[in-house]
Amino acid sequence: MLGRRSVPGGPRRVAAGANLPGCGARAGPPRRYAAAGFRAGDAMNDAKRLEQLIKAGRPIVLIGTHEERDALHIVREAAMGLSRTAFVWSANRGLRNAIVADDADAIAGSEHLAAAFFHVSREKGEGVWVFLDSLDHMTGQNQDPGTLRALRDAIDACKGTGRTLVLIDHTERAPPVVEGHATRLHLSFPEDEDIEEIIRRTLNRLNSRERPIEVSVNRRDLDTMIRNLRALTRRQIEQVITDAVLDDHRLHAGDLNAILAFKRQCLHADGLLEYIEAPASLDDVGGMENLKRWLRARELSLDAAAKAKGLTPPRGVLLLGVQGAGKSMCAKAIATAWRRPLLRLDPGALYDRYIGESERRLRQSLQQAERMSPIVLWIDEIEKGFASAASTNTDGGLSQRMFGTLLTWMQEHTSPVFLVATANNIDALPPEMLRKGRFDEIFFVDLPEDAARRAILEIHLRKRRHDPAAFDLDTLSDASEGYSGAEIEQAILSAMHEAHAAGEPLGTAHVERALRTSPPLSVTMRERILALRAWADGRCVPAD
Q1: pTM exceeds 0.85, yes or no
Q2: Which domain holds residue 320?
Q3: In sequence order, what E strands does 324-452 have?
Q4: Residues 205-245: tens digit of each pLDDT
Q5: 316 beta partners
């Protein structure tokens, strides 16, 4: 086993008895999870929550997860904590004892799901009955009336008898007979201490006398590694550490990039949260001086000294305004200025045609964001994801439930997640979102004024390797009146193409001509912009 002694920083070879840095010995009796690599942190909390549900007489509990092994350990812990027998069903082995995992206790003829449910209905006494991947047998084209009837009978038989059905599945797409009775249990992500334990146990497993593992991380590297592994499951953490070590049989600071890349891959595969590279700074944002001052002042309240004075960290802002005015750029700039990762949540990707799945995906995304904190969470064009919440039951109340989940999280979460929401259409936003206290502030991002347009012209010319001093910025600022920042950028790009095609150096005339030939949004959508300004007057803080 790898030991627990503190070691000095710097590379060294890890043989039997060596360890990760900065870890003192742990006293006390062995943990109940030790044999399986569990600690009494998040998993024990999940087991206690399941115990409470069982004691409360819930007839059926649904655990939606890809981490089947972890879920089974939690069920076993809950059952043993309540001194109840536990059986587990799978399609290939039927019902068998879940504690000892011995096929000698298998129940003959229980491979068919309906037969297993029938057996539960006839069983006497208290117990926990676990079913693995059973929902696929009861949904879609696989629906069997006999199986659903047997499940209904089993649920009725469990009520008030001390028996509980636990469905562990990779999905929560449950048939109505389950939805009407099920309580969902969402597994926790490992805490920082648990992540460190998983790293240590993974190194133990991979370490050998023939080829010992070399650990070249100091305490700071290890803490960074742990932060980057937040919001990953136990299996994913084991996988990424194994991949990092087996490459060169070393764990070193250079593995941090590989770990971060793996995490981005996991987020993208899930399709809900996206890790955004945020190279933009507040200096890259033209204008918006009021917003910049607010952000710089709030940044000072992020440190420990502010907390000691009773200051609470900022929770979020809503940026409302004209399309292309720089709201998305602001979200990136905030993350850069505050030196925090930026995650983008696509609310449109949350919606699923199966009952309960959309709400689960939103809860999962918010839980992931909290575990990865401190971060900036960006919801772009938030009105598109929750527009139906402002109407009356156009989607069976799904958007309203989703919106309620988001509002509850915004109100109650205590993690250092700073929410940046952007919106273009105020009419599509439910009024509850605009209530005081939801966001620290609501800023209105209007079309840039003269000074802001000059700054935007300078930023985009310099970004494309042109000296702003070589251009008549007064003329271009006048010509770009009524244009958004995105439209000014596009005009510069068009002018560059025109100049390149003509074999000429880019000049003021090229940019001015590009501006004149492309009418701005303030002309094509004049009425909507005027209405937006009228609404924002007195309700929002001007960003500039």
Answers
A1: no
A2: 276-444
A3: 342-345, 375-379, 417-423, 441-445
A4: 888 877 888 888 888 888 888 888 888 888 889 999 998 88
A5: 419
